[in-house]
Amino acid sequence: MNQTKYIFVTGGVTSSLGKGIIAASLAKLLQARGYRTTIQKFDPYLNVDPGTLNPYEHGECYVTDDGAETDLDLGHYERFLNVPTSQANNVTTGRIYLSVIEKERRGEFLGKTVQVVPHITNEIKDRMQLLGKSGDYDIVITEIGGTVGDIESLPYIESVRQLVWDLGENNAIVIHLTLIPYLAAAGELKTKPTQHSVKTLMESGIKADILVCRTEHELSQELRSKLALFCNVKKEAVIQSIDASTIYEVPNLMLEEGLDIVALKKLDLPKKAAPDLKTWNTFLKRLKSPKHTVNIGLIGKYVEMQDCYKSILEAFIHSGAANETKVNVVSIHSEYIDEENIAEKFKDIDAILVAPGFGERGIEGKIAAVRYARENKMPFFGICLGMQMSVIEYSRNVLGLSEANSTEMNDQTSHPVVNLMEEQKNVTDKGGTMRLGAWKCEIKPNTLAYQIYGETTIFERHRHRYEYNSAYVADLEKAGLKASGVNPDTGLVEIVEIEEHPFFIGVQYHPEYKSTVANPHPLFVNFVAAAVKARKK
Ligand code: GLN
Predict the structure, then answer these.
(1) Whose CA is nearest to atom 1 of ligand 1?
(2) Closest CA to ligand 1's atom 6
(3) Residues with catalytic annotation?
(4) Contact at 8 Å (CB) between 296 and 316?
(5) If we measure between CA atoms, which residue out of 331, 312, 329, 320 comes closest to residue 292?
(6) Which of 97, 176, 234, 243 is the most buried (most CB within 10 A)?
(7) What topology does CATH give the domain 290-536?
(8) For 345-361, how does the pLDDT look when each residue is reduced to its tens digit (9 = 90+)?
(9) What φ, ψ does residue 480 adopt, rounded to 5°?
(10) 429: helix, coil or strand?
């Protein structure tokens, strides 16, 4: 196949309809039929990337192997497809403007007046075709962030219109995701908001080829016909997307509705084989019929908002299924934990994960949680800041360095057991300047880490500025906190563990970013297994 085909996914009526999940589900089905498929997301905000956004604003910041700080939907793409994404898979309006303005400064527009149309739209169109032109993909799905009709989405919508025209019929199609609200008082599903949003799209010159309708109730045949007639699509292209008990159900629901077949037909592509969803469905079966249950305490300061720890929560779903275990993640706010109330707060908890994070708020609660897990021999898993907290806790309570701290929290501390990395010392810009992306780590034999990974060289994704201070490593090792994984080039300690403990591990990187349905992350799988064992006791 030589022509890459494009599928654009737009959203109407309201945000939060789950465009990312629909895009990922369709991609999954196309991939399972044998098409090389990728997904990219175009976001309409002016931040160059979401790296500087507070997690409360936009949920978790997801990190790719090549060190891009991206929208959390890229996590869904990877978890569904089991194919890594990259910098090219997430573009924001900020990035588009930045590159157009840089070109203008370099004089690349030869005296022209630089305008939204055509300069911004051309830049968008180029970016939209970047992955397609690599020759690595048969189908590229592009999710447009925001809702049709928003002022800030307009340049994207215009670019889609032009691209559909440039690429020609059967090479690019538009899927519009909308909401069919249910009015309880009238006992009816309502199509009007969808009709309006399709009309809004039409005003921008785009005709939706497929409608995916989010709904809480089944769409009748009559309603589907009505939607088809008033929204100008074939009836078979009216796809119901009913609320599912888990997002991992959605590919099968879309398969039943024939979304992949309708899309292939519109793109003039053969169906190829029936989708091979064997691994996927085995996972689903295990997810739905667990044999055990565990309560895992997630200790963090953003626990009020689920999206802030998206990849961790999803990694627990993958690793729970791998263990045939239902993992109840119990969110515990680190700001409200202290030495007095901790036993009460943790009384039904089987294992503890101390979450990543930034800044001082809630860290004493995190340190108390590490101590509790260590002293009570409860399975412990610390990620990034969570690992740094375990180094501080060990220094304070085992080595007796009561002043031990991270210089992120107290730059005057007499024992900076966690401090700013050397290469960070002259960094002043906040955006995209952390230690990011995949870095190598060598694992020492005869360690828990080796037992878990089964190999000595691993690559994991990072996002941090501070590190475990090498000046303290030898003393802490002697006292029992083992450095079991080290970056061979920088000597940076990436993994710590305690031998005299059933399961105590802290990692400087973020394993949650690499956990997928097909490849649940071994650290999470083993942590859940340790929790099951602890509970049985
Ligand atoms: N704030 C810590 C650092 O910058 C940890 C970061 C994180 O948990 N991702 O090193």
Answers:
(1) 358
(2) 464
(3) 384, 510, 512
(4) yes
(5) 320
(6) 176
(7) Rossmann fold (3.40.50)
(8) 999 999 999 999 999 89
(9) 115, -5
(10) coil
- In a 10 Å sphere around its CB, with 0-12 CB exposed, 13-18 middle and 19+ buried, how is residue 286 labelled? middle
Query: What's the CATH architecture for 5-281?
Result: 3-Layer(aba) Sandwich (3.40)
* Spacing, Cα 385 to ligand 1 middle (Å): 5
Residue 386, annotated ligand binder?
yes
Query: Which contiguous run of DSSP H or E holds residue 286?
Result: helix 278-288
Determine the straight-line distance between the first and last CA of the chain, rounded to whole angstroms.
57
Alpha-carbon distance 218 to 205, whole Å? 31
Q: What is the pLDDT of residues 318-330, one digit of tens each?
A: 999 999 999 999 9
- Smallest Cα–Cα separation from 22: which of 131, 181, 149, 142? 142
Determine how many CB atoms are found less than 10 A away from the CB of residue 218: 9
What pTM value is reported for the model? Answer: 0.94
Q: Ligand 1: which of 353, 358, 436 to mutate, most ligand atoms within 8 Å of CB?
A: 358
What integer is the mean pLDDT of 503-531?
98
| Residue 376 pLDDT grade (very low, low, confident, very high; cuts 50, 70, 90) | very high
Closest CA to 399 of 296, 314, 476, 311: 476
443 and 449 in contact (C-beta within 8 Å)? yes
pLDDT above 90: residue 416: yes
Q: Give the C-alpha distances (Å, rounded to integers) separating 6 from 167, 175, 375.
A: 9, 11, 55
Residue 418 Cα: closest atom of ligand 1: 10
Ligand 1 center to 56 CA (angstroms)? 17
How many other CB atoms are found less than 10 A from the CB of residue 150?
A: 15
What residues does CATH 3.40.50.300 cover in the chain? 5-281
Numbered ranges of CATH 3.40.50.880 in the chain: 290-536
Q: Are 215 and 240 contacting, i.e. CB atoms less than 8 angstroms apart?
A: yes
Half-sphere exposure of residue 445: CA atoms within 13 angstroms, side-chain side: 0
CA distance 14 to 148: 9
Please name the residue that has the structure tokens 């691993």.
458
Instruction: Say whether 332 counts as a known binding-site residue.
Output: no
Q: Which residue has the higher pLDDT, 49 or 102?
A: 102
Q: Which residues have CB under 6 Å of ligand 1?
A: 356-358, 384-385, 408, 463-466
